[in-house]
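Postdoc handover notes: sequence design on the structure in folder B. Input tokens:
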């Protein structure tokens, strides 16, 4: 049988073990603030409070997939700005490497990179956000996308490996889905696109379930009802 003291020590050890297993970042929790050197000078993540932020990492400057992604991120930047979203890039390269690569992108593609790119040489931000996945690389960040809301809460995260470029339309769609869900207190179904019907939150009580089918929604059953949003 446990003595009280032993029980306390055992509980503390169990708690520590759970803390060790805790992922670095969890959805709907505050993200850690940081200060970093970027191609736009020193920034703090909290400088962007009040805006949505897409913090994304790329494995390395002057690499082919990353170059196509940078061009593609720059091309959706106008749409993101309309949605109050700030892009911030990151890789474990120097600011001089970033500047040289950005200049090369301008030369070869005629595209100006409009967002700051973090030079994370000491991997401070990459480690803080869990961007290093040793199974992929111990020296380069994987392709992460962190969607951070105006209150600095993490709202979505996507991880891609080194050899697969990200889909910009999906990133835009995700921003639209999150902003629509917040504004209208709804959820969005699989493959939802702006303009499509949205999902009404399912009833949480037996009583609410009883009346759900009489509320004028388009329902498959009481737990799956959709509605149109005002245009
Ligand atoms: C690329 O962006 O092409 C790339 C970067 C790191 C490893 C493999 C490919």
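Designed sequence:
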């Amino acid at each position: 049988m446990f003595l009280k003291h032993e029980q306390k020590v055992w509980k503390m050890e169990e708690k520590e073990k759970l803390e060790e297993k805790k992922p670095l970042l969890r959805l709907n929790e505050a993200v850690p603030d940081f200060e970093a050197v970027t191609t736009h000078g020193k920034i703090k993540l909290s400088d962007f409070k009040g805006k949505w932020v897409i913090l994304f990492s790329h494995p390395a400057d002057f690499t082919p997939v990353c170059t196509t992604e940078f061009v593609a991120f720059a091309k959706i930047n106008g749409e993101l700005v309309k949605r109050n979203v700030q892009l911030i890039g990151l890789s474990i390269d120097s600011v001089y490497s970033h500047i040289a690569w950005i200049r090369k992108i301008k030369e070869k593609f005629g595209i100006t990179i409009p967002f700051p790119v973090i030079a994370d040489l000491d991997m401070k931000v990459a480690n803080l956000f869990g961007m290093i996945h040793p199974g992929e690389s111990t020296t380069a960040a994987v392709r992460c996308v962190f969607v951070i809301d105006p209150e600095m809460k993490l709202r979505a995260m996507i991880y891609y490996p080194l050899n697969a470029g990200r889909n910009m339309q999906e990133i835009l769609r995700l921003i639209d889905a999150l902003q629509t869900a917040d504004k209208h207190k709804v959820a969005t179904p699989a493959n939802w696109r702006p303009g499509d019907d949205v999902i009404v939150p399912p009833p949480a009580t037996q009583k609410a379930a009883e009346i759900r089918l009489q509320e004028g929604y388009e329902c498959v059953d009481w737990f799956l009802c959709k509605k149109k949003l005002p245009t």
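Context for whoever picks this up: Residues 64-82 form the longest helix (19 residues). Don't rerun without checking with the PI first.
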